[in-house]
Amino acid sequence: MSELPGPLKMFEFSRKEMIATYFLLTSLIIGIGVKYTIDQHWWLPGTEVVDTDPESIKLKINLNNAEWYELIILPGIGETRAKAIVEYRKDKGPFQAIEQLGEVEGIGAETVKKIRDLVFINEPKNISPQSRRDRKGNQL
C-alpha cells in the first residue's frame, strides 16, 4: 500500500486492523438488521387493540389438552395443583365435566367455582364398542 499524505496517515491500517474493522462493521450491520427484523414482527399477523381494560380480557383453557404450565395461571391453581390435574388426567382419562376437578387432590368446590368460567372441556367423541375395529378390520 502507498503512504497516505499528511493528516490522512491516521487512517492507515495494517492488514490485521483492516480485517478486524471489516469484521466489526459486518457484525454491527448484521446485528442492526436482526434487531430491526425482531422489532418489526413482520412474521406475525396484524392485530388491533379493541379494548385496553385488563378485566375485559377473557381466556378459556381446555382442561383435557392444557399442560401444567398453562393451568398455573388459573386462580387458586399453583404449580403443584396444576401438575396434579395433569396426573389425574393421565391416570383417569379426559375430564367429562368441570366438576370432576373437585376429585383432584388439593382442589375443592370453591376453587372449581372460581375457575368454572375460565376453563372448558372439549366433548370427547364417543365411539360405540360395536363400531371399534382393530387394524385388520376385526371388531373389538
Low-confidence stretches: 124-136
Mean model confidence by pLDDT? 79
Number of helices: 4
How would you characterize the largest beta sheet? 2 strands, parallel
**Number of distinct beta strands:** 2
Strand order of the largest sheet: 1-2
CATH topology of the largest domain: DNA polymerase, domain 1
CATH top level class name of the largest domain:
Mainly Alpha
Query: Helical proportion?
Result: 25-40%
Itemize the secondary structure elements and their pairings.
Elements lengths: L14 H26 L20 E2 L5 H4 L7 H14 L16 H7 L3 E2 L20
Parallel strand pairs: 1-2
Structure report:
This protein has 4 helices and 2 strands. The chain is mainly α and 140 residues long. It is elongated and about 85 Å long. Helices cover 36% and strands 3% of the residues. It has helices at residues 15-40, 68-71, 79-92, 109-115; strands spanning 61-62, 119-120. The chain has 2 domains: 6-40; 54-120, Orthogonal Bundle (DNA polymerase, domain 1), CATH 1.10.150.280. The longest helix is centred in the N-terminal third of the chain and has 26 residues, at 15-40.
Summarize the structure.
The protein is mainly α. The protein contains four helices and two strands, in the order αβαααβ.
Question: Top keywords for this entry?
Answer:
two-stranded parallel sheet; DNA polymerase, domain 1; mainly alpha; 140 residues
